[in-house]
Amino acid sequence: MTTSAPGLPIDAREAREGRRQRAVESLGLTEARRYEQLDRVARIAKATFGVEFSSITVFDNDRALFVGGGGFEDVEAPRSASPCQLVVESGDIVTTDDARTDARFDDIANIRVPNSAFYVGHPLKDINGNVVGSLCLVDQQPRLLTDREMDVFRDLAGWAQDELLADADSLRARDTQRSLLPAAPLDSDGIHVVGVCVPALSVGGDYYDYGMAGPLAHIAIGDVMGKGTAAAIIGASTRAACRAVVPTIADGAGLGRGVERIERAIIRDLERTGTFVTYFHAVIDPVAATLHYVDAGAGLSLLVRADGSTEQLTGSGMPLGIQTQEHIAHSRPLQSGDRLILVSDGLLDVVEDQTNWIEELDTLVRASSDGTDVLRRVAALSLARIPIDDVTVVVVEYRP
After folding, report:
1. Contact 55, 135 (CB under 8 A)
2. Residue 326 near residue 260, CB atoms below 8 Å
3. Are 291 and 343 in contact (CB under 8 A)?
4. Looking at residue 253, which CATH number applies to its domain?
5. Which residues form the PPM-type phosphatase domain (predicted)?
6. Could you report the per-residue pLDDT of 120-152, keeping only the tens digit for each?
7. Which of 133, 166, 177 is nearest to 36 (CA)?
8. Are 308 and 361 found together in one domain?
9. Residue 354 belongs to what H/E stretch?
10. Mind listing the pLDDT tens digit for each residue in 256-279?
11. pTM of the full predicted structure?
């Protein structure tokens, strides 16, 4: 049995191929790699039907990218070698009980080389109906799918399509969020700043930023209630408000008023979405060797001093979004070798004892050679202990 869709005029095929390629690029599916979720669907399809191979294939120009698969390890092949090109070209289910006698498969190497017989492929489409790939089954023995089996295959293709689009959306959101974080460490006037954010999901609600505004170094960290895309949107809004206000802060004494302006800029969004943001903002004045800070419900920052002492930096302010409030700036003198450590509450998921987190973090910082080493150690803990919340750490080293 064979099925195929009617052919299209050349101009129509070229236009459709152009739309399809733009759809693949917009989904960010141009990297030759496997995705765990799609591998899982392919493995289940292979086991369900007892076939030799199952593949979820996306076409990027002349490449066939195996973004999910069962029964083989390849991640890429020439487009011309993949039978799923027939699915993309027809826009419909393509199946054959014996490809060895089916002329459509004469020039397809991945069918001819293993001398495969049975093939069925189902189109996978984006939200606009562009066929970006295919879920297929391949076996060396001729066979037919019953009507009931074909229903199951359609269900699996629907699952594969959902996962494909969800993965693409998550990748775009993750890449966008990463692009909003500082692109490089800060080195200025003896102030060195590095940071990292490890989201619990593809994207998260943690936010951090740093940079110079005139002679002052600004460092901020926020933690939006919740996780995922919704929290990431609020985090981006907080970042935008912070960046708009920072240039207006002329000195450390004006930091409190600056944070109040940040809160006023986002409070309606926070109220409408029923969320809030714990927020810590620090300003370092290298001329006066002074740290100024506002803590709005965070309470997770440490000043690890070169003289061996450690202080938890806290304030009386509530998180942003609870209600409009006065934010008080606090000040501390700085000495060469002091380190300021800003963390989100996801760090509590990776320490051994949450009630003793200050001592654990202090020990980790003092055992580290520099800020980058602190981030490396925290990342290792996050990998080993799998936090359920986003983990963000920013390290500020003062070495004039």
Report:
1. yes
2. yes
3. no
4. 3.60.40.10
5. 195-398
6. 999 999 888 889 999 999 999 999 899 999 999
7. 166
8. yes
9. none
10. 999 999 999 999 989 988 999 999
11. 0.63
